[in-house]
Every structure is written in structure tokens, then in C-alpha cells.
Predict the structure.
Amino acid sequence: MPTPRPRQFWTLLILLAGTVASMFVAGQWAWHRSLLDESESVQRQLALYAQTLAQRIDRYRTLPEVLALDAQLQSALQRPLSPAEVAQLNRKLEQANGASQSSTLTLLNRDGLAVAASNWRTATSNVGVDYSFRPYVQQALAQGRGSFYGIGVTTGEPGYFLSQAIRDETGHTLGLVAIKIALQELEREWLQTPDIVLASDAHGVVFLASQDAWRYRLLEPLDDEERRELNTTRQYSDQPLRPLDYRVDDRMDNGGRLVRVRPSPDMPVTPGRMLWQTQPLPGTPWQLHLVHATHSSVADSRWAAAAGGGGWLALSLLVLFVRQRQRLARLRQRSRQELETVLQQHAQELRTAQDGIVQAAQQAAQRTDTGLSRSLEHLPQGVVIIDAELNLVAWNSRYVQLFRYPTDLMQVGRPIADLMRHNARRGLLGPGPVEDAIERRLAYLRSGTPHLHESAKGDGTVLEIRGNPLPEGGFVTSYADITSYKNAARELRSLADALEQRVADRTRDLDAARREAEQANRSKTRFVAAAVHDLLQPLNAARMFTSLLRSHVPGDAERHAVDSIDGALAAQDAILNSLLDISRMESGQFDVHIHDVALGPLLQVLGHNFGVLAESQGLQLRCVPTRAVVRTDENLLRRILQNFVSNAIRYSRRGRIAVGCRRVKREAGDHLRIEVHDQGPGIPEALQREIFEEFRRLDEGRADDRGAGLGLAIVERLGRLLGHEIGLRSQLGRGSVFWVCVPLGNPAAAPQPDATPTTIQQAPQEDAPLQGGTAWVIEDDAPTCAATQALLQRWGCQVPVAGGATEALAAAQPGQAPQLVLLDVHLGTTHHGPDVYVQLCERWGQTPAVILVTAERDATLRRQAAERGWGFLAKPVRAPAVRALMSQTLLRLGESNRR
């Protein structure tokens, strides 16, 4: 084989060297980048574990302090105790331990002797055991409190000890009370992570570990003094402390370390480097460690190396390709020039050859005596040639077969008109005079006009006829049999017609199915609306009765029970209203009014409405002021944000809730993302889509207010209805952010808030407007009538009539109209509330004020009530809302009468 040229050798060498260098650089960059990301993630996990451990300890920290103030325990440490008194103390500590769910509670005197303990019933009871050597005893007696982690001397179970000194009134130390906290449950929780979680003490001894092989390992060698201290305090009893054989390969800027742990029979570990992150636990001498496998970083490094090498090869090949294309372009240009020269030569030769062929064909036609031309026999078409006098010159056998001419008819020099007459006698020229048809065809031949048409014979044969004039006079005509082509085209048209018919039938069936689905959806909506209406009637009566019952119960316990009943009814009301809203949105009956809305006033009202509720739960709610204007439906956007804020309050135990905005870019233009931040427990990633489904909720909410799981389902549907994107991001242990993305609007088109200060009228004392007033209750539900009548009478209002439409019409007399009418819309199956009111006004000769009290949620009905100046209350109504609206209406009537 010939040796490669030096140029090819150097090219190959550069390719290989560049590939290796690119793979090394890309792999190292990806390794450090991925390792840094993993280190930050491990730090966040470690902070969460530290927070969990600190919370578990803080949960029990105050219990010894509270017990140290107990007078019975103080008295027990000041005198000798009888067995009965010791038994009483044991039961007291046992009861306190059961309430706190700790491991053990022990009462010790100032000599370190256990006087009483919560585990007095077990064989490993602490009672009577001397614990004076334990550091938590010495610390409490010397400093007032102490802490210590170790293995129990009596029980053999490890735990964390917290102690508190017990002093008398003069401050003299009498003894101490100690609590032992078992942390094994925390280790079981650590098993859920694939990483290794450790906790070590001040001596570097691992006392908590997610894997048993790591427990009681020495992270650092112990000196003689530390060993004596461990032996004296018997911190780890007789448990052997084995060193952890590991090596630090590298240290990171954020405190992380890359280590290799040498495997052994009692220490099975994954080979390779591991990321070791350490964090001190505040308030203790402990440190938390998390050991994380770096398989992901190694994989990222390998992929990056492959990508770097591939990128270098691709770039190199691209350069070589471009250079090759340039070289080929130069070669093509030279070849094109040479080819043009050759083509010119060949074109000249072809023209010369064509002229010779034409002359030869004319000579052959002139020498044909029988008319059959051997040069035409190979053609699949039937061909006939006539001269300038329209006489036969030549033809082929296919022409004779197509028209079935007799032999004696086909002669050179015979007029073509004889052949046409022969065809006319056979009916091939169509209806009409024969001579006229022949003369018309002869005129076409004389004119020398090319023609193309199709002709169908009686036997079903379809011929394509092409005619062209000859240069020196005459005409050549070809007849092609296209019957099979026409049959195939006809079958294709028939198949297309059948397919179109099937598509039309299927479209008709789909339209019918769609109409049936829409009809079923409308029926479902009507059923849901009717069902909710019927359910709200007794629910309304129940809430009215609970409002009436609250004033008749004497004690706090009874009032608390009534409040609980009212809260349960309110929750049921919210569920029914949510189901009705979902049904209306699915049926397309939800009114949407998109316009430019100033966001600042909306957030301000939101903060006022939910601020008190948040403070009552120990939370801080802050709405960041904004001047932004968005394009949306103000009422529906308010409902979305109310759901977000109420969920944040429901699931947050402490901290702050913030509502703010940030501008974002979208393909449709600038948008504003309204975000609600909380410091709740967070939502696992696997549940972040499910919580937007109906009746899906988390279990971390408040036990007395966990909702029905419909709020976010309504938010998701409102977002789709408005075209607003809904989303969230969450981190376990850190909180969640729910957001809605709204397009920005035109500030000039948004209605400006009224700058004129409004005069706030002081609320009337007690029920002054209702005292002595008259009202009719027109309602077809008897329990609701009775409850409403009783409430109004308790408020000092006279209710002469409380019943249905028939009773009201019968009681109406001229000039005896009440001041106010509480009117339901649906009064049985035959009466409509507004129509009944018109009839009553005709009988009274007066038009009293009206408050519609209905279970209908129709926006049109609410708008009609506002146009007539009527009040509107949606069932089930709350007694304070009824009283407030009635008082406001009667005050307004009084002012108008005075004017």
C-alpha cells in the first residue's frame, strides 16, 4: 500500500488531538459544574434535616422547665417519701410522658439518685439508679440545665437527655428532672433518601446514621483524654467505636469534600468518589453530615466529554467539507465549460441527423405502394397519413384493427372521405346529416389546424384522436385506445364519491353526537343547579336556626357547639357553591367581562379582607403595592387570588404570606405574573398536578379548616376560561408559590379610583333601624319561613306574613304594604317571585323595598335586581348579612322619606 501523504497525516493528527483535548476540557467543566449543583442541593437537604432534628428536640425542651416548677415535685425532693408517694410520683411522670410522647421522664435528687420515673412498670426501671456520673446530671446541678446524648445505662437504648434543675423558693437546688428523647424514628425517616445521613458529637463519634454500618464510627481519632471522658460518662456503654477508613481527595469552596470510603466486610459502600457535606447543628456541639454518591456528576461529565469531542469533530468535518465544496466548485466550473463545448458539437450533429431522418421518411412514404408502412408498425397507436388532396398515403395495421376496415377499402390514393362515409354507415360519426359531418371533418383537415379530442365507440372503446399537419401539406392522425385509463378514472371518481358520502355521513353522525353531548351537558347543568337549589333550601333554614339558637344557649360550651354546627353548615355551603360554579363553567354559562383593571386597589382590598384572618392564625399577610393595569375579568381574577391566599393561610403554620407581581415576557406580549408566596410545608413534585383536580387536597392543613379540595380545581377552570396561565413552584420544607399570568392592559382605559373621601356612616346601635319595622317573608320553604320570622321578631321587627305566594296574595290589602319584602325567586312550580311582587304592588297600591333571597347564582338575576334597586342575598344566608342589608335598606328609606 502507498504511504499516506504528509498532508493527510497532519490532518488526521490534528483531528485526533483536538478531539481528545475537547473531551477533556468539556468533561472537566461539566464535572465541576454538576458537582457544584449537587453540592448546593445537598446543602439544602442538609439544612432541612437539621431543621427537622432541631424541631424534634425543641418540641420537648420546655417540658423539663415546666415540670421543674411543679410544687409536688419540689415537695418530694425536700423530704423522705413513702412507697405510696413514690408510686404517685411515678404515675404523675408516666401521665406526663404519655402526653408528650417522649421516651422517659425521670426525677432525681441532688445526689443523682432517681427518685421516680415514667418507666417504673418495666423491668429496666430507672427508679433507684444512681446517675450522678452522667454529664446532664452534673450540668443541671451546676448550671441549672444540661443536655447529653448517650446509651441508657439501665435500658440500653440510646437517646438525647435534657435536664432542668428544681429549686426551692430561695433558689437552693433540690434536684432535677430529666427527659430522654428517642431519635430512632428520625433515623427511619432518613432511610427514605438514597444518601447517607449522619450525626456526630463533639468527639467525632457518629451516633445517628441512616445505615447501621455507619453508626458508632469515629470520624477522627480519639486522644487519651477523650477516651477517659467517654469511659467515665459511659456515653456509649460497651459499644465498640471503630474508625471510619476514608480519604479526602479534594475540597470544594463551599465546604464540601470529595472522599473515598474504603469498603470492608462490615462497611459495604459504593466504590468511587462521594460528596461529603457537613453542617453544624445550632445550639448543640453536634454536626450533621450527608454523604452523596456522585454517579450523576460522573454521567454528566461523560456526556459532556462525548458532546465536546463530537462538537470538535463536527466543526473539523465542517471545515473540511467547506474546503472540499470549494474544490469541487472549481472542478464543476471547468467541467461545465468543457461540457458546453461538447454539447454544441452534439447539437449540430443531431440537427444534421434529424434532417436526414425526415428526408428518409418522406422517401419511404413515397416508395410505399400498399400503404402499410413498416416504420409505423411498431407504434401502439393507430396512425394514418393523408396528402394535401386528402387522399390516403400510409397507415399501420393498428389503425385498421381499431376501425375494422375491409381490405379492399384500404388503398393508397383513396379519398379519406370514403373512409368517413364507411364509418358514418356504422354510426361512428354520431347523429345528424352524414354529409354535413363529413364536410366539417374535411374542413378541419384542409385548414391544417392541430386538434385533440376523445371519441367513444358503441362497444365502449374510447379513442384519443390527435391530428397534426405535415410541413409540405397533408395531415397525420393518431388514434390511441384509452379505454382502460378511462375505466380507471371512472372507478376513482366513483370511489371518491363514495368516500365523500362516507365523510358526509360520519360528519352528520358526529354533529348528532355533539348535539346529544351538549344536550346531556345542559341537562346535567340544570340537574346540578336544581339539586344545589333544593339542597340550599334546608341548609339556609338550618343556618338561620343556628343563628337563632346562639342567643338561647346559656353556657360557653353550648355556644361553642352551635358555632361548630354553623361552621359545618358554612363548609357544606362552600362545597355546594363550588360544585355549582364548576358545573356552570363546564356548560359555558359563566359570564366573562374582560376589560382593563387597576391591580393596586384589588390587592389592597384582598389584604384588608384576609389580613385579620391571617393575624388570627399567627401569620403576617403583606400585599406589595403596584400601579400595574391588567386586562382581565376583575371578579374572576379576585376569586383566583382569594383561593390562593386562603390556601396559603390554611396550610401555613407560621411565617409570612406575600402577594406581589413581576413582569414577564410571553409570545403574545408583556404579561404580569401575580404571585402568592407562603412558608408552608411545600408540595411534593408528584402531587403538583393532582392538587388542581377535584377533591384533591394535602393532609398538612389545619385540622379545623382543610377545605373540600375544590378551590384549585375552580382556579384551574377560571384560568382556562380567561386564557390566563396558572402555575406553581414548591420546595418541601420551604413553602410554595402559586401564580397567575395576566396580560398587561392600557393604563389610560382603566377606571380610576375615586379620590373624593367618602363619608363613612356610623353603624346603628344594636338593631335600631329594625325596631318597630314591618317586613313580609315570602318563601315556599316552611322551615326557612319559620326561622326567618323568628330571627326578625327577635331583632324587634314585625312580620305579619311569612309564607308562600298564595298566603301573601291573600293577605295583601290596599294601603297596608310593609316597609320591606324578603322575596324568594322560585315560589313552587307555578309562581315566580318578581311576578308575585308586581301583583302585590297592584293590590297594595304601593311599592315597598325588596331583598331577593334566593339560591340562584345567575349573574343576570343579580344584575336585574341591581337595576331595580333591590337587595340581593344568595342562600344559604348568614344572619349578620341579613341584618346588615335590612338595616341599610331601612336607613336609606328613612333618609328618602325625610327629604
User: Anything to note?
Assistant: The two ends are 120 Å apart (CA to CA). The first strand starts at residue 104 and ends at 109. DSSP finds 20 helices and 32 strands in the chain. Residues 39 and 256 are 7 Å apart (CA to CA).
